[in-house]
Amino acid sequence: MELNHIKGFIIDLDGTVYAGQHALAGAVEAVRKLQQYNIPFVFLSNRGNYSRKMCQEKLSKMGIEVPQHAIVLSSTVTAHFLQQHYTGEAVWPFGDSGLEEELRSHHIPIADVPESARWLVITLHESLTYRELNLAFRAVRNGASIIATNNDRMFPGEEGDCIDVAGMIGAIVHATGESVAHVMGKPSALMAHTALAALDGLQAEQCVVVGDSLGSDIGLGKQHGMATALVLTGNTTREQALAYEHQPDLICDDLKQLVDHYIEQLNERG
Amino acid sequence: MELNHIKGFIIDLDGTVYAGQHALAGAVEAVRKLQQYNIPFVFLSNRGNYSRKMCQEKLSKMGIEVPQHAIVLSSTVTAHFLQQHYTGEAVWPFGDSGLEEELRSHHIPIADVPESARWLVITLHESLTYRELNLAFRAVRNGASIIATNNDRMFPGEEGDCIDVAGMIGAIVHATGESVAHVMGKPSALMAHTALAALDGLQAEQCVVVGDSLGSDIGLGKQHGMATALVLTGNTTREQALAYEHQPDLICDDLKQLVDHYIEQLNERG
Questions:
Q1: In a domain, A56, yes or no
Q2: Are A14 and A86 contained in the same domain?
Q3: Which residue of B has its CA nearest to A168?
Q4: How many beta-carbon contacts under 8 Å exist across A and B?
Q5: Residue B59 falls within a domain, yes or no?
Q6: In what helix (H) or strand (E) does residue B133 lie, and over which residues does it extend?
Q7: Residues in A touching B150 (Cβ below 8 Å)
Q8: A41 and A116 share a domain?
Q9: CA–CA separation, A190 vs B128, rounded Å?
Q10: Do A130 and B127 touch (CB under 8 A)?
Q11: Spatial separation of the C-alpha atoms in residues A71 and B199, rounded to whole Å
Q12: Residues of B with CB below 8 A from A127's CB?
């Protein structure tokens, strides 16, 4: 496929750059190559249980150094959304500590008790307890509306498939009978716009979305006019991709193959 | 209301006999009075995270001594159901340890790993961890069908409203996209039949169901031809009861009031 019109990369993280705490083969090299060639990119992840700071540190440990504004997480986009549309309204975060860290870094007020929250923000909670489940439950029972950072069902973990945010959402929704007011994550327009804003000046048609998820990554590109490249290092097999209703523009073994292919075309253009 | 035709009591536990670790006012006295007058009764609870042994010990600490066959829990009925319909099929229990204890006491085989389970049995899990959530998730991802001991949404705890089995069910169902094959708890026919079997020889119309829940307790009685008495010591207010589509035959302040009223009529008959 021709990549001559592409000026910027929107790159998924889990299953594309790393799995768990380990960088995927070639990923570090690929990102460094983009940096060497001064090609604009942004990491765009449905992770809502990290703050950008935590994500920056995680990438740094793997040998990838990027500024925080090159990272857009669903927690980041949730914070922007609350800032813009519900200024000053107190939230109760239900998820790992990175969510609260990201909300606080955007000056979103955190409720003292769940009963006084206007919003319950749900994300992945890998250190979930029954007590915390009850606090989230009481927020909604007392009138808080539900925002989910994303609605992904699962992700591949080191010991096997792991339950993602959908599990936390299901627990609260099924027990309260309330539904989710807003879902922030990919493939939403909010995620697409925030990623483009981080690639200042680039238009959707000048960007390629790279990721391992048909629904989140390829879906995002298809819905918002970007080129799409599926990598086979995560959730999706080539067979699943070929059976999908919206074919990705490219299927690559990994991120490195895509970047090498792009750089090659760039060099050929001279 | 005339209680002359009543020969046996089917008595709910949470919100009727006790709340948390404490007996409700008058409840111990009421149960003792039934025993003194030799009136058959059975405790019938949607709790699936206890075994009968644990429940017997809990009641004993409160001063109520009953044999195990006078206790029917949703974990008990789940074990009977599996014994009868799916003999020898391995299960993965997802809930507090009482569920596994009750299943084992009925010789239900417990799978070594979630991947080899034919059934995932879900009940309340007050010591839930993310790891256990993932094990349950993997059971269903690998083909296990879902049985829930019950589908209650909440119960009143000592620190406020607590999320009940519906939370655990929602987590698994929403993350896997699978639905629940069987729900065991009240107001099911299985619970009604097991309770009647424990009151050997009594017919439905000779029994009164006493409890604090309109859906579970009053619902059970209405659906299966028993008299119904709502107590106001738990989940339901008098106003809620009066607005309910299926009015209970009696509304009592507590279990003691009902038993006193019954014994009074018994004494009048001489």
A1: no
A2: no
A3: B171
A4: 99
A5: no
A6: helix B130-141
A7: none
A8: no
A9: 34
A10: yes
A11: 65
A12: 130
Would A95 be classed as within a structural domain? Answer: yes
Burial A74-91 (b: 16+ CB within 10 A, else e): bbbbbbbbbeeebeeebb
Contacts of B213 (CB under 8 A, 6+ apart): B12, B15, B152, B186, B219, B234, B235, B236
Is the domain of A134 the same as that of A156? Answer: yes
Q: Which of A49, A126, A134, A140 to mutate to test the interface with B (most CBs of B within 10 A)?
A: A134
Phi, psi of A58 (to 5 degrees): -60, -45
CA-based nearest distance B252→chain A, Å: 27
B208 vs A154: which has the higher pLDDT: B208
* Tally of domains in chain B: 2
Which residue is associated with the tokens 């405790």? B43
Let me know whether B90 and B158 are in one domain. Answer: yes
ipTM summary value: 0.89
Going by C-beta distance under 8 Å and a sequence separation of 6 or more, which residues neighbour residue A203?
A: A196
Task: Using an 8 Å CB-CB cutoff, list residues of chain B that contact chain A.
Answer: 125-130, 133-134, 137-138, 141, 153-154, 157, 159-164, 166-177
Chain A nearest-CA residue for B136: A163
pLDDT tens for residues B45-78?
999 999 999 999 999 999 999 999 999 999 999 9
CATH number at residue B145: 3.40.50.1000
Task: State the residue range of the domain holding B197.
Answer: 8-46+186-269
The verdict on a CB contact (< 8 Å) between B175 and A154 is: yes
Within a domain: residue B64? Answer: no
Residues of B within 8 A of A137 (CB-CB) are: 154, 161-163, 167
Which residue would you say has higher pLDDT here, B21 or B183?
Answer: B183
- A157 and A201 in contact (C-beta within 8 Å)? no
Compute the residue count for chain A: 270
Task: Name the DSSP class of B19.
Answer: E
